[in-house]
Design a protein that fits this description.
Chain lengths: ~675, ~625
């Protein structure tokens, strides 16, 4: 463990962040039509070879890379070259964007109208925009927004258009293509479509990676994609997917460009459009297939108030600086660069680390609204079994306490400075009136959905549970927005709680165990256990909650409240992982497949919830269940058997059992560590 | 195709360099009184250093300066200058570097002998050497003169009158046998020998290792400068290794022959130096590089003399022992005599140039020329910055007609053909052979160029391009008078990497300068100077204005280091022909692998177990 000197540099309070500007303000005061038709002349990359979308395609089809793979496929399958070439061409046709300014103008107009009805404000840090404008001229740029809503990429293009910046080309999932007309519209506004999975398809991969690289290298347009791969249904950042990041870094590794700038963008919604949709999805109500008619039905959302959006364009990250001293580019000297090669070990771990750093950068610049704190408090209050809710003034007091704590932990909290806290609280509550109920000066989650008068008997206990879970999961998704702020201290708090003694080493072991266990659940940079531990210690010591000596970690008198709050933050996850373990030990049969896992574990959990044996309704979240399975697979406690039945799960009962016990603090971490970790 | 034809003329009838005006206002360099060659009976052994600068490039009387009107001029009688004014240089210089003629950094004019460390002498060695009658000297000036090559840090220190470790004495062997005696004595008395040829090294190869405690003796080969015989039946010549390039060429020319080996340093560099560093000549496309030119080498090592027993044109007798010698950089012994291929002098020579709309097209054209294996004697492609540099060196035009023609050309290229003056680049060409073939060859190359959008741009531009090579070293001295320091470095790289390496290294230089606090944007430019079947040689020029920096040489070295890292990361070689010396030896291991290093070391251990040739280059 490193010395204390490291602490001083990492004080989150010192984080400097830009101010915001509301772009809707101007839209409310001037003509949308004129705005949509105004002169658009963005600055471009200095090395740009101007090319149309059409020439771009032929560049891809004529590239050495694609040539090589086409001939390889021919050799392996015995197909004719023309035939494979044809296929490559149609893959590209299916994939390629057809960015058109007129479509963008159409969107600029309609979105202005839509945004003005939906949102109070769209706030952007203009300094970030200026930085972006600078780097666009110097190097190829990759935009990496967080992904919480369908809105994200339209919003991004809208913003770039507004600020007269080069419009991005955006990697979008193929499912959008299902929406006939809309798919084409998106294509014309710069989206290109990739299949969700194309594991072994060499040709597809070659066309796809070459297409992205060609656009990037020529500086055709900023390339935009979502590191998280898909929309996060829980508002927690998802562990990053590496495929596209690998592709955009590759031209730098191979010397084809001098540098690539990665710009993390944090988009935070005060109220997410898909709020209850996500909750239902997590509970197993399948997500409706994206369809145009579905989108039209979603019109009713237009009549609601979704608060404000904050978009923060982060500091551009130079791939060259990231790779300095980490990647030996000479490894590409001995094989022609157009021959596809699996990334080497060091490249892979570099890309992985970079991806985590970038997602962390997104997290750090996420704006948190007071409601996020209220949601955390209300959830904890609900679990503690107070049926009547919490008094409004008590909630306000707690919120103010939490506001101060989160700020000390470096949260990017937007709490109106000159408004009395009680007003802040009540206006937050009223924006989310679908989730909370206020009666007689007491606040609680709106769990008893049933409209008065409707006969209760019509609802089965299971249905009632699920409808409550929708509210809880929606609420949890707001709490999750603040998770990254509290995560490290919370892991430490839980570690102290589960560790068998106050010995620092033991607490660290416990911390390390939990961190490892949850590394599919939260964004925890690989290999940063010691830093994370130190950061957590530092924050808790700084806020007076902890005393850390050479040997011991002691909770102070006044630290108690903080630690209770922090452990409660992590508790639902701990319980979730435990119950998954228990399920695997008790109910997993020989024939359990990966596909059956979620429905089976859900059934198991519902049973236990109804029997009152579980505290947290939240553990119904399929996201949590998937993550815990992923963790168990990673740790080797469960193995996937490749054979007759696809993805049959083989459970190592002893190990799963011991993990469950360690999670619950029944077993010292040391043992579990020896067991396998 | 625009091709402004000129009267064909053989410019290199006598010897190539003559700084003067051709019929069309072109600028060329020719040496009038060839200085390196002195009558053999001359008793003096210090003649070269008497007429050369001790703290800069070339002859003492030859230098660029800005006259009172602020116009650039070239001084001296050695290079012919016919009332030559270079009007564009000042503006280019000031604009490119942000330099000003008001801010001067003159060099220390005189060598202060008292600042030189007194020699550490090995008395027994000196005594025995005396008895052999081989001339030697312990004079400070002689020693300082042989303590350096032409790296920036070496010249910069000299200009400030600073001297580090210098050789303790200088010996001038007159023939192979003298060298044998010296090496024997050195081995006997454990004296460190550093061979010295023309002193044009740019790899810190001549620097005395500061940690060397033994007496260091500089072995100057300049007196071994005879052509011992010419064999017209086999077209070979047997030459002593101390001969300087221009002398060798001129002497062979007298009997109608040439070697065709023309490295840019050939005015001063020696045959032995070429062998020891694996030199490359401008016209290698016709004549080959040094490894293609040598037939036989004799080298004196502490273990004795190494040579082959016959002069067969090719042998299959295990690894070629010549390849232990070539590139050994003075770590194994002294090359004393070399048999070289010679060729009849070409009947006809013609320069040419082609303007391309951009560098990418230019490289594509060179690649195609290489693919078709029809490269002329020399073909070089300068990037846009270097094109402008070359342009700035254009002498004042004498007639209204020429200036009108120039204007017309410029108009045609930029307006009519739509070339962007900030992107276009130029290739310079030199054809050689019999007249008919040259003209045919020329057409073939111009036809290829046309496919890549290239426009023939006349002979003058071609000549001026080559001139840049020869005066660049003098120009560096001019820059150093005004706070500008710089240097060139080179690499070789596969064809598919050429564009990438050029862009990335240039960008890296700019970025590093900025990060290291250089106040003005640097000159960062490159050219492709040689083509091969599988790749090309790329030359980078890098210079910056160091006003405001406390330790400019350190900054310079850091940037050059970064640039070399960038070259290696982009698939470039550690060196194409400058060699490794001490400047680049930190990268040797990764360049040749551990086993490769071990092989080289074991050769050194066998040949020179006591490290008599202790310049510590390479390994």
């Amino acid at each position: 463990m490193a010395s204390k000197a490291v602490y001083s540099q990492r004080d989150p309070m010192l984080k400097k962040r830009d101010d915001f500007e509301d772009i809707l303000e101007e839209r409310r005061n001037s003509s949308d039509l004129r705005y949509a038709l105004r002169c658009y002349a963005p600055v471009v990359y200095k090395g740009l070879c101007p090319s149309k979308a059409g020439t771009l395609k032929s560049m891809v089809l004529q590239s050495d890379q694609l040539h090589y793979v086409i001939h390889q496929v021919c050799r392996e399958t015995g197909r004719a070259v023309d035939d494979v070439q044809e296929e490559a061409s149609s893959i590209l046709e299916e994939m390629a964007h057809r960015l058109q300014l007129s479509t963008v103008r159409f969107f600029a107009f309609t979105l202005s109208k839509v945004f003005k009805t939906l949102f109070r404000s769209i706030c952007v840090n203009e300094e970030g925009i200026q930085r972006l404008q600078q780097v666009i001229q110097e190097h190829p740029v990759v935009l990496l927004p967080s992904h919480r809503s369908y809105m994200d990429f339209l919003l991004m293009s809208y913003l770039l258009y507004t600020y007269d910046l080069a419009l991005p080309v955006i990697a979008a999932g193929m499912d959008f293509m299902g929406m006939k007309f809309v798919g084409e519209m998106l294509r014309m506004s710069g989206a290109f479509f990739i299949r969700r999975s194309f594991g072994g398809d060499k040709l597809y991969w070659a066309v796809f990676s070459e297409y992205v690289k060609t656009m990037l290298k020529n500086g055709f347009a900023p390339v935009e994609f979502f590191l998280e791969g898909t929309r996060s249904r829980t508002s927690k950042s998802l562990t990053p997917k590496l495929g596209l990041l690998n592709i955009v870094m590759d031209p730098f590794f191979k010397g084809e460009v001098f540098d690539v700038s990665l710009v993390p963008v944090s988009i935070s919604y005060e109220r997410i459009l898909e709020e209850s949709l996500y909750a239902r999805e997590l509970l197993g109500v399948p997500k409706p297939k994206e369809s145009t008619s579905g989108l039209i039905k979603a019109r009713k959302v237009l009549s609601e108030d979704y608060g404000s959006i904050h978009v923060y364009f982060g500091q551009p990250v130079s791939v060259r600086s990231l790779a300095e001293g980490r990647v030996n580019r000479c490894q590409f000297n001995l094989i022609p660069r157009h021959i596809p090669k699996k990334p080497s070990e060091d490249i892979h771990s570099f890309v992985n680390d970079s991806a985590y750093r970038l997602v962390r950068a997104q997290e750090e610049n996420m704006v948190l609204k007071p409601w996020v704190l209220l949601a955390s408090l209300l959830l904890q209050n609900q679990v503690s079994g107070q049926k009547r809710g919490i008094a409004l003034d008590e909630l306000t007091e707690q919120a103010v306490w939490l506001r101060d704590l989160s700020r000390q932990y470096g949260a990017f909290l937007h709490w109106p400075e000159h408004t009395p806290p009680s007003e802040v609280v009540s206006s937050s509550l009223s924006l989310h009136r679908g989730l909370v109920r206020i009666s007689e000066g007491r606040v609680q989650l709106a769990l008893d959905k049933a409209a008065p008068g409707e006969p209760r008997s019509a609802v089965t206990p299971e249905e009632e549970l699920l409808s409550q879970a929708v509210i809880i999961l929606s609420c949890a998704s707001y709490r999750n927005q603040a998770l990254h702020v509290f995560l490290r201290p919370a892991l430490l708090a839980s570690a102290i709680h589960t560790a068998s003694s106050n010995k620092k080493q033991e607490v660290f072991n416990s911390f390390s165990f939990l961190r490892n266990m949850f590394s599919n659940e939260f964004i925890l940079c690989p290999g940063a256990t010691v830093q994370d531990f130190e950061e957590a210690c530092y924050l808790l010591v700084k806020t007076g909650a902890l005393q850390v000596t050479q040997q011991e970690v002691l909770v102070t008198e006044r630290g108690h409240r903080t630690l209770v709050f922090l452990t409660s933050m992590l508790d639902p996850f701990l319980q979730g992982y435990q119950v998954v373990c228990r399920f695997l030990c008790e109910e997993a049969t020989e024939a359990l497949t990966e596909k059956q896992f979620i429905p089976a574990v859900r059934k198991f959990i519902i049973k236990h919830l109804l029997a009152g044996r579980l505290r947290y309704t939240e553990v119904l979240s399929s996201d949590l269940q998937k993550n815990s399975l992923a963790a168990l697979l990673r740790l080797g406690a469960v193995r996937k058997i490749k054979g007759a039945e696809q993805g049959t799960l083989k459970v190592n009962t002893v190990m799963v059992n011991s993990l469950e016990d360690t999670l619950g603090g029944k077993l010292p971490t040391q043992k579990a560590v020896i067991a396998r970790l | 195709m625009l091709y402004i034809s000129t009267k064909y003329q053989i410019i290199r009838k006598d010897f190539p360099f003559y700084l003067g005006k051709t019929a069309h206002g072109g600028l060329w360099v020719q040496i009038k009184n060839l200085p390196g060659h002195l009558p053999k009976e001359s008793p003096s052994h210090v003649f070269l250093q008497e007429i050369m600068k001790w703290n800069g490039w070339g002859y003492s009387d030859s230098r660029f300066l800005f006259n009172k009107k602020g116009q650039a001029e070239f001084t001296g009688k050695r290079y012919i200058i016919i009332g030559m004014i270079i009007p564009g240089l000042k503006d280019w210089f000031e604009c490119t570097f942000g330099a000003s003629l008001q801010h001067k950094t003159p060099a220390t004019p005189l060598l202060n002998s008292s600042a030189v460390q007194p020699p550490t002498l090995n008395e027994a060695f000196v005594e025995e050497l005396k008895s052999t009658g081989i001339p030697f000297s312990q004079d400070a000036e002689d020693r300082v003169f042989r303590a350096h090559g032409h790296c920036l840090h070496e010249i910069f220190a000299l200009r400030e009158g600073k001297f580090g470790r210098v050789p303790d004495m200088v010996v001038w062997p007159n023939c192979h046998n003298d060298v044998v005696k010296i090496v024997e004595l050195a081995s006997k008395h454990n004296v460190c020998l550093i061979p010295y040829g023309g002193g044009t090294s740019v790899s810190s190869a001549l620097e005395c290792p500061p940690e060397e405690t033994r007496s260091i003796v500089s072995l100057d080969t300049s007196q071994m400068n005879r052509i011992l015989w010419v064999d017209e039946k086999n077209l070979t010549a047997h030459v002593e290794a101390g001969i300087v390039g221009q002398d060798l060429e001129r002497l062979l020319n007298e009997s109608g022959y040439c070697t065709g080996h023309e490295p840019d340093s050939m005015e001063f560099s020696s045959l032995g130096g070429w062998v020891a560093t694996r030199a490359s000549g401008m016209k290698k496309n016709i004549y080959g590089n040094i490894e293609d030119l040598v037939v036989h080498i004799k080298m004196v090592t502490p273990q004795g003399v190494i040579e082959k027993s016959c002069q067969g044109p090719r042998m299959s007798t295990g690894p070629d022992i010549h390849h232990f010698i070539m590139g050994s950089e003075g770590t194994l012994g002294v090359v004393t005599e070399v048999t070289m291929k010679i060729r009849p002098m070409p009947e006809y020579q013609k320069y040419g140039s082609v303007v391309f709309p951009n560098f990418e097209q230019g490289v594509a054209c060179l690649r195609e020329v290489a693919r078709q294996r029809c490269a002329p004697a020399s073909i070089r492609l300068m990037d846009n910055e270097q094109f402008k540099f070359g342009h700035a060196l254009k002498p004042q035009v004498s007639s209204i007609f020429t200036s009108f023609l120039d204007g017309l050309k410029k108009f045609y290229i930029t307006k009519f053909k739509g070339f962007d003056p900030n992107r276009l680049c130029v290739a310079t060409l030199l054809f050689e052979g019999d007249r008919e073939k040259v003209l045919q060859h020329e057409k073939q190359v111009y036809d290829i160029a046309a496919k890549f959008g290239g426009l023939a741009a006349g002979e003058d531009n071609g000549q001026r391009g080559y001139m840049l090579t020869f005066v660049i070293a003098y120009l560096r001295d001019l820059g150093m008078d005004y706070y500008v320091i710089g240097e060139s470095f080179e690499t070789s790289v596969p064809w598919d990497r050429v564009l990438d390496i050029c862009r990335n290294v240039k960008a890296r230089i700019v970025r590093e300068c900025k990060e290291r606090g250089v106040q003005f944007p640097p000159l960062s430019t490159c050219r492709v100077t040689q083509t091969y079947d599988a790749g090309a040689c790329v030359y980078f020029y890098f210079a910056f204005n160091y006003r405001g920096l406390s330790d400019p040489v350190h900054v310079y070295e850091q940037v050059e280091h970064a640039a070399r890292e960038e070259i290696l990361a982009n698939g470039g070689s550690l060196s194409h022909h400058h060699g490794v010396g001490k400047l680049r030896k930190e990268w040797m291991r990764e360049t040749v692998s551990n086993v490769g290093m071990g092989m080289l070391k074991s050769v050194k251990d066998y040949v020179d177990p006591n490290n008599i040739f202790g310049n510590r280059n390479l390994l």
